[in-house]
Specification:
This protein is mostly helical. It contains 9 helices and no strands. It is globular. The model is unreliable at 1-21 and 126-152 (pLDDT under 50).
């Protein structure tokens, strides 16, 4: 199994770039697209490792930045956490077994756990308050973008944090990360129809929360 090249000083994963240079997944994370790459990478194909990293890392960076609000937690930035996830994903490749599920589900689960670990570390450091979740980058080509552009900082994070967990994850993956309904379904172990329902309900509730807050301050 080939290893991931790292920078000799800062341990940066090879090819790792900032969010501004990372494209949205654009339908490349379906099971049909991922499975052949995963199996080839597991078998030791270095080109497959590179291609799998190139496909997975934009999602991980966007996901971690969304969940962590674009801010640093203690000594960890969202990019640090995303890099840890990349390394964890590729370290487990040699023992990965395809049992009919989705590799994307495993990747998202590892990312969620790493983000949770980062917040647990910060929760023990009272001098570094936990930021609200999530602070997203600009939303493009989404019918909901006009609503989300109301405030993509602390206010939106505070309101999104009040949604049920699955609704938060669906909105993060669909709108911020840019996954399709099918990809989001695979990442969360849901059906595409269920994803669309949760997305709709989450957006409706978010609009209600925004309106309630506006009314309180009017």
């Amino acid at each position: 199994m080939p290893t991931i090249d790292t920078h000799p000083i800062d341990g940066e994963v090879r090819g790792y770039r900032t969010l501004d240079t990372l494209p949205r997944p654009s339908g490349r994370l379906t099971k049909e697209m991922l499975d052949p790459l995963v199996m080839a990478a597991k078998a030791g194909d270095e080109d497959a490792v590179d291609r799998l990293l190139a496909v997975v890392k934009p999602m991980l960076v966007r996901y971690c930045r969304a969940r962590m609000g674009g801010r640093d937690l203690s000594y960890l930035s969202a990019d640090d956490v995303a890099q840890e996830v990349c390394l964890a994903v590729f370290k487990m490749l040699p023992v990965y077994e395809d049992r009919g599920g989705s590799f994307l589900y495993l990747v998202r689960a590892i990312a969620a756990n790493k983000v949770a670990d980062a917040f647990r570390v910060v929760s023990r450091d009272r001098s570094d308050p936990v930021p609200e979740l999530p602070e997203a980058g600009p939303v493009r080509n989404e019918p909901e973008s006009h609503m989300l552009d109301v405030d993509l900082g602390a206010r939106l994070g505070r309101l999104v944090a009040r949604l049920p967990k699955l609704q938060r994850e669906v909105l993060t993956l669909r709108i911020v990360v840019g996954l399709s309904a099918t990809e989001t379904a695979a990442a969360l172990g849901l059906s595409p129809g269920n994803v669309r329902v949760k997305q709709h309900r989450g957006l409706v509730k978010l609009r209600e929360l925004v309106q309630e807050e506006d009314d309180d301050f009017s």
